[in-house]
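Ticket #4471: structure output looks truncated?

Reporter: J.K.
Steps to reproduce: submitted the chain below (379 residues) through the standard prediction queue, then opened the result file.
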Amino acid sequence: MDMRWDNLRLDDSPEGCRGAEAPASGAQLPLFARGAVTRTFDTPGFRGMTFYEIQAKSIVSRVPASSRMPFTWTINPYRGCQHSCIYCYARQSHTYLDMDAGHDFDSKVIVKVNAPELLRAKLASPGWRGEHIAMGTNVDCYQRAEGRYRLMRGIIGALRDAANPFSILTKGTLILRDLDLLGDAAEVTSVGLNVSAGFTDTSLWRSLEPGTPAPERRLEVCARLNDSGLPCGVMMGPVVPFLSDSPAQLDAAVRRMAEAGATHVSPIVLHLRPGTREWFMSWLRAEHPELGGRYAALYRGGSYARREYQENIAARVRELADRYGIGRRPGTGTRGARGVTAPRGTRGVLGGRGTPASGTPASGIPAVAAPPSEQLTLL
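Returned output as attached by the reporter:
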């Protein structure tokens, strides 16, 4: 019987892999890793991490129709994420690989080393119709491992050469390394860029997102991209109930996003799916035990905060976005080709003003008023 990790298996022989440890084998390893190459690096940025280098069978994944997301296809060159965000919804997917959703998700990363080659083959296949591809919708494609494996350069290069529209959502500053490729791609196709920053509180960042660049650095990335003529918005997620949702905190965050030239802002309230819920609530009990009862009342044992709370956050952020002029920044450059102007925003996103011709938001981010089921794939 096929399992969900079957497409991650590596051919038995890891020929050509230099400096790697012996091929992983034995009952103590996850099934997908038997025959893979494992690497560990004795450097401060990677100490305690294990990377499983695998030859994937496919790299472009279809989003289930039931998700109602504004895109159909995604690319995820990594599984697991060193950003270690306590609330990351993708944690549960690590259990499909015989790993746990907690420390394993943070410290054991699957690397699809043949991702660029697979993508070129897919884009050249007769059945491919040049549809929008979203990246960063599961784990971050610009997590720290990307600095070593450099898969995104090959991926963006393939998309550019095929003039295939795409979007990227990231917390990583490493995206600036690829400014040249992003600029080239934006000359021939629609490129949507967004940074993820739910709050600007540094103490909350250190506790909740310990492996990520600081929120201020992410917003500097947003500013740099916009100044380079590559429109960039902000996915304001997650808004963390009772920890980042005060009027002063929302005001400070949206004001800073406006200063970064964000073309739009899309607030997403924290959601707690199975796997993530247990990990987050363990953190909450340790760091903020006084909030346990309030979370129980707000989430009622489910994955999503009460709808009235979500709608209140959306209304408050909408008012702040209007106050600070998000989406109305003068002189923001755009790049385009073939008579098509690169989109400045997204339909239904706060501050957004345009959509690509295909009707898929260039950002890959759903409308602010989207039902909870549509707020699923973005953190």
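Triage note (M.O.): checked the attachment and the full token line is present. Confidence is low (pLDDT under 50) at residues 1-27, 336-349, 352-362, 365-379.
Status: closed, working as intended.
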